[in-house]
Amino acid sequence: MNNPPSTDHAANDSWWRSAAIYQVYLRSFADGDGDGTGDIAGLRSRLQYLAYLGVDAIWINPWYPSPLADGGYDVSDFRDIHPAYGSLDEARKLISEAHELGLRVILDIVPNHVSDQHTWFQKALAAAPGSPERDRFIFRYGKGENGPLPPNDWHAAFGGPTWTRTPDGQWYLHLFTPEQPDLNWDNGEVRAEFESILRFWFDLGVDGFRIDVAHGMAKDLGLPDLGLTEFSVIAHEDNHPHWDRDGVHEIFRSWRAIADSYPEPRVFVAEAHVRPGRLPDYLRPDELHTAFNFDFLKCAWEADKLRDVIDRTITDLASVGAPATWVLSNHDEARTVTRYGRAHTGVTTPTLDQGHPTDLALGTRRARAAALLMLALPGGAYIYQGEELGLYEVEDLPESALQDPTWERSGHTVRGRDGCRVPLPWTGDTPPFGFSTFGSATPWLPQPDAWKSYTAEANQADRTSMLQLYRSALRLRRTNPDLRGEEFRWLDSPAGTLLFERGNGLLCVVNLTDQPIPLPDATSPLLASGPLDNAGMLPPDTMVLMHRD
């Protein structure tokens, strides 16, 4: 492949408003030392591929030391690298090499909780009730005589109770797994520690952070019962005791001040599951820069619903001067090809909608159109690794291979998220498809044999592949002036279709029906998600970018 031109890393402080950011799930991206687990060495070896793809930045899922009870989101040390992934020295080299290629680097930060192996929590367990060590977390006595019942009725994200009892009789709160005790963000030490962590990585050259569970952290320490029978990721009412509380905004204002203090300002993106109309509160000018658009990710492949989500997103975020973002997939959701090939194309539950038949040809056609739609909309876009290869969800992983805590916590009734985390295929006709650079070590999750047709090598050789579509769309985003700004206008179109204009005469047409539709008159196609009809018709589940003649 041709080497991409280097860009001036500091050229545009507002790069994040329109950036295409590639999500790296490090364990599954590329293995540089041959042990079957992805690592920093593997990522460094593939940076040219990411520059070739044409993205502006990479977002790396947690690479910190962790027992991996929840895929690295149980962090035991926020200032180091997990030994299986490499070292701090390698991290510095990665950041430098990425910058040389014009790629910015965004890390994950997990402020709601830590690992139960974190030094702080181990000290809390060894300390007495009421001690300063325990005040960093949320310890309480239980209900009933001698406290045999949990302090309240909250439910954990991966199933089961949200409280675990310690030998001295107190209980500690964990909204996720017992291995992830929640921090007490009313504690000044907690706030100071995370401000120090931000500075540590910013000083190493990191360009920003994705904030895990940004709608958590602040909690009603009165711990009132919710009266619900199961966990909900979103607060459905005002004054929820642990989701989307106003207290998070004071935290984020202090974080923004730190980010803005650097000569090249750093950026934040929020993972915030909130009620309609609440997201702009997180993106006020003195808080976070951007946030994931879960409404778009979870939206069904239906024209009216997509138009409504696009309208609401742009309008709501414009009220605080924030750009929209668009995302189709991530490490927590079923891959787009699989979801769009089902009878129901939306995401309806916090866990995966599993066990439904998928038409892969239909799903691929729709995923291609959706990718082009996402990259043609104003604002930023997030691409989950492997989406550019057209990968599908691996739904038949052997039960012995499953590692997502949802599997155990649900009593082996919900398979969890491992199917979208299977290591990437790079080259060759048999597993591990070049995933391990120095050998053929078995990857930490098995790859399907059929992925020989989906490798990066196979995609690069096929000029009609998903990879080439992404490359072409990303190149247009960089070079076409009509796609650079935030100008956006809907135009009238038939039912079941979307038609909008960007800039000065760039038309974007999406056919979500099951019948061909006429293309606009006096237009010239620039890029289509699939073959166009020679008779001037746009086939079903296809999108095209066109210039007015």
Automatic annotation (TrEMBL):
Keywords: Hydrolase
Family to which the UniProt record says this protein belongs: Belongs to the glycosyl hydrolase 13 family.
Molecular-function annotations in GO: hydrolase activity
Name of the protein this chain belongs to: Glycoside hydrolase family 13 protein
Alphabetical list of SUPFAM superfamilies matching this protein: (Trans)glycosidases (SSF51445)
Stored Pfam families: Alpha-amylase
Protein source organism: Streptomyces violaceus
Residues annotated as domain Glycosyl hydrolase family 13 catalytic: 23-421
